[in-house]
What we know:
Layout: E1 25-31, H1 37-46, E2 54-59, E3 64-70, E4 73-81, E5 84-87, H2 90-99, E6 105-110, H3 113-124, H4 137-147, E7 151-157, E8 160-167, E9 170-175, H5 185-191, E10 204-209, H6 221-241, H7 246-257, H8 282-303, H9 308-316, H10 320-325
Antiparallel strand pairs: 1-6, 2-3, 2-6, 3-4, 4-5, 7-8, 7-10, 8-9
Helix pairs in contact: 6-7, 6-8, 6-9, 7-8
Amino acid sequence: MRASTAVLTDTSIRLWELAFPRGQVLLGRTRAAYVALDSLIAFSKQDRDGKVDAYLAAYLPDEVVLLFFLGGDLANAAMLTPGGRVAIGFGEALRRIHAGSERGEIAFHEAAPDLLAAMYASCVQPPLAVQLDPRTPESVFKTLFERRWSGLLELISNGRVNYLTVQDGRFATGHFSERRSDEAPLSYVARLFTSVPPEPLPIVAAKLYDPPPPLPHQAPPAMVAMFRHYVWDLSDLIENEAPGEGAKRAERVRQRLLAEHPLLSCVGGPRDAAPTDPVVEPRALAESVAVWTRELLAEVEVLAPQSAPRLVRLSGREHRFALTAVGFFEKLPWRVQW
Length: 338
């Protein structure tokens, strides 16, 4: 199989050659066509042995797609391409992996939550505008020490990806790719910049990031679909009570709020419209839909006082437990009796 020649942004490092830090190898790098991806995800979610913190790296013809797992559940996804690194929705990630399975490879590795957070942050945070000299470890850490800098240092040497935590310009801890168990961290870091003749010196890329927050959870497609159906059901209920006007009112309110709450673009609208694949945390999506609900039902109550709790109860009854789990009803001014 011909390996991809795509390179990481602003470097000559091939995406195909990236090797991330890892814990236990759950699935060694294997041709994607041999991997039942849906079964792997289902096993991680349902089986006790699969409920691990881990990442899946899919090496595709033009990109590397990363799926992050916390406790066996899909938590988030990101992608590295020649054009940049971005967070992507679960649906888009799975579509890309399936589409590139004939020429792709997959690895599935256990990883500590702070490693997952560092990997994700390096994909979604812009690197800091600090010039580093990547020729030697001394030249890199001299700049950091002079600035008394604290945060995340990403070092990539010949495809080996490493994440170092720096505190006040000094190395604190890190996650390393292919470090020997008996090798001291700083000795390994020094080795990233050297080679054994006649091999050429390795290509090293160094980037700085703000300290990464914990890995955020992305709303899964089922949750996004749940909020879509809630918005449609509430719009239909209002239309039934005000034929010819209710649905139009619901859509006017949604359009009015889009500028301030762009997440509303992934809910509402025509039922036959192609759904978007948002990258959004569950509570952020719940907050946007709650704002729409408050605005819409405030208008409805002018014509039908005290109708809001009833309409919320009818439209949210089917998914009330999932809506409660993301704090949706807490964001509304009405108490709903089930």
